Each structure stands twice: as C-alpha cells, then as structure tokens.
Amino acid sequence: MILVDAALARRAAEGRPVRVALVGAGFMGRGLVNQVVNSVPGMELVAIANRTGESARRAYREAGVDRFEVVDRSDLADAWIRRGVPVVTEDYRAVCEAESVDVVVEATGAVEHGCHVVLSAIAHGKHVVLMNAEVDATVGPILSVLAAEAGVVLTGCDGDQPGVEMNLVRFVRGLGLEPLVCGNVKGLQDPYRTPETQAAFAARWGQDPHMVTSFADGTKISIEQATVANATGMTVARRGMGGMDWPGHVDELVGQYDVDQLRSAGGVVDYVVGAQPGPGVFVLATHDDPRQRHYLELYKLGPGPLYSFYTPYHLCHFEVPTTVARAALFGDAAIAPLGAPRVEVVTTAKRDLAAGTVLDALGGFDSYGVAERAGVTADQRLLPIGVAEGCRLVRDVARDAVLTYDDVVVPDGRLVDELRRRQAAHDFSSSEPSEQSEPRRAAVH
C-alpha cells in the first residue's frame, strides 16, 4: 500500500512511532528486527520475546542494537520502553500485556504456543500480525471473531504468499474483474521429504530443518492456500488441490481452467510446480463486460475469458512492516478469514505408522498436510495438521492415509483444541463480517 510510507513518515516527524513487539526470534523474526530497526522510519521494534532468551538478544545484536534490558514483567517492560530502551524477555506475556506496545508480531511458527500469544495480545488490546500461517489455518476464524470483539486487527502478513495473493485479489476486484483462481508457484513438491533430506539446505541458509521440510513436503503450501481460501470464500477443486507441473509462464495457465466450473465452485485456490516467474503468486480472473474485455485484450492480457495477474516475488519479512502499519494506522487486515472455515489442512501419513506412535511436529518424519474442503473435514472427522503434533495413534495407519480423530488420542489440556471446539460451535452467520471490513481500532499512541 503506497499510503503506508507517507503515514509512517508523519509518525516519524511527530515523534510517535508505531511500537512493535516481536514474539519468536527465529530466522524470519531476526530478519524482521533488522528491517524495522534499520529501514522503517516511524516504527520501532521495542521488545522481543523468545522462549530462549539468547535468541532474542541475538536478534537485536544482529540489527546493531547493543543496548537493551532483560525483563520478566510487563511493568518493567513499560518502564524501559518509555525511557527509549528496548527489552527482551523469555515470557511472551511481558510484551503482550505492556501498555507501551501497539502491535504484536507472532512469528513462532508453533501452533499451541502461538495460540496463547495471540489470545494474550488480543485480551490486552494489541493488534496482531501473524507470521504464523499454521495458527491462521487451524484456528484463524475463531481468533478473528475474538479480535473483532476486542476492537483490534488480527491479520496475516504482506510478503508471505497468502498476503501477496490477497493484495492481488483486492487489486483485481478493484479493476472490476472476478477472481476465480488464487495460485502459488512452487519449485519442488515431494510429500516424503524429511528433516534428514532437507538438512543440507537448511544448514546452508541457517533455517530450521523442520520448517524447510514443511515447504518441501507440501504442508506449508496447503496451509497457505487454506488461509487464502478462508479469506476469499474460495475452495479446493479436490483434496490436495490441482498441483499440476507447469514449466511455462503463469500467463499460459488461463487455458488450463474452465470458467464455468470455477464459478460453480465459487473460485478455487491452487498451486503449480515449476512455473515462471517463480517463486511468485498469481490470480486468474474474468470479466463479463465485452467492452471491457476488448480493452483488456488491447492492453495485452489476451482474449479471455480468463486473465492472468501475478506478482513474481514475495519478500517475506521485508514487507511485514507494511502489514503492521496497515493494522495500526488504517485498521486494515492484509488477509483475514471471512467467517467459517472453507478449507482445512488434514494430516496424512508420510510413512507406515504403528499404533502407539506419538506424531512429531509439522515438517517432520510422520506426516504431511493436504488441503481439503472444511465440510468434508468435519463430516469425516479428519485430523487437522495443526493439532496433530503430540497425538498418539491407537491403530496402525498406512502411508498416504489421511488420519481421523478416531485414529488418535489427543493430549489433554491444549488451548488449540479448546479453540477448535469453539470454532466448530460458533455461529459465524451472526458475526460474519463483510470482506476486509474495518474493525474498531485499538488506541495507537
């Protein structure tokens, strides 16, 4: 959004920067700290929370910040932030509860812990930016309801593929076209990749092997496209999406879909492997007005009925400050669920699993995620990937079988399971907002 730079410049000139706390100082989190500290006038990274305190300290040091204080309570965090000194902590509550924080960026990548962070931030009147699509795909709809009730913005982020896709959707709709396909470009798709096969790549780039594996085995793409479906009202054409291999340009994809079928479905989310330009995203849209179609062909978009729009990159943490500003200064979500879930991501066995196996984390050795329609997921009691970690199998499960709740014992006392129950019971028809509607704004000092 071009408005963001001017709005932040005004905040910088007034000496009233948007104050941001980061929870989760991993690879992407550290990149965000560097970006805000060194490249975003009008915004300050005032606090970092991480369960391992040294990672939080490392994030500040890598950004050139040598003066910070270690705290364990919100009142201490407030006292130092008011003096202009950033803080680090191992307790997310110290920053979520601090009055001197306007926006919390959740970047842990963990579902259960992330749920606790988001609820705490919402309860204390903070806008929340999710660099954690896993939480969004699992319980985003109910969390969005709770955020709206609290008068704050809960949003996915610019830079991550879902946010980039949603920006394209809004752009295309602004032109008067109807988006029918939201697509993601992948370079690799192999559901049987593991942290062992991805270890060398992860080490080269300083990333977590499980996170890298979730990209390679298709879990992440399923999670990302589920969040797009839930934000647009679209669905999947089939379990797992289309996922065609396509060595050509994304513009050529306009001939691979049937407009009537797409419209009948209400639009679909999808991905392709190997297309150019990559790694980017695309939206295929149509227009009913023959006079406007004439102009679109003149402007080199082809004869229709589908027209291709794409962004050839997604710059992850570089773009997240834009999301922070959109939420804090304009009450705008980059991407957020419309209401009830449209698409879920279900747990699929990566190998033959024996009874008694305790399922490992996303991007691990035991399972991969595939996108499925939410109605099918509920009717068949399919196990969402976001709740799979820690579940114990009660029977043998064959490779590539989709797990159900009847196949597992779920750990006791988890917040994510309580949120899933609330989400399933919630009447979204009574609280469903209009698309990208503006919630009441929390105070931003």
Write up what this structure looks like.
This protein is an alpha/beta fold and 445 residues long. The protein has 3 domains: 3-159 and 318-330, Rossmann fold, CATH 3.40.50; 161-232 and 244-316, no CATH class; 343-424, Type Iii Antifreeze Protein Isoform Hplc 12 (Alpha-Beta Complex), CATH 3.90.1210.10. The chain is built from 16 helices and 16 strands. The protein has helices at 3-14, 27-39, 53-62, 74-82, 92-96, 111-123, 133-150, 161-174, 199-205, 209-216, 219-232, 259-265, 290-298, 320-330, 374-379, 415-425, and strands at 18-23, 43-49, 69-70, 87-89, 103-106, 127-130, 154-156, 178-186, 244-245, 268-273, 281-286, 306-311, 343-349, 367-373, 392-393, 408-409. The strands form 4 sheets. Strands 3-4-2-1-5-6-7 form a 7-stranded parallel sheet, with helices on both faces. It has a 5-stranded mixed sheet with strand order 9-10-8-11-12. A two-stranded antiparallel sheet has the order 13-14. Strand 6 (127-130), helix 7 (133-150) and strand 7 (154-156) form a beta-alpha-beta unit. Helix 6 (111-123) packs parallel to helix 7 (133-150) and helix 7 (133-150) packs across helix 16 (415-425). It is globular, with a radius of gyration of 22 Å. The two termini are 22 Å apart.
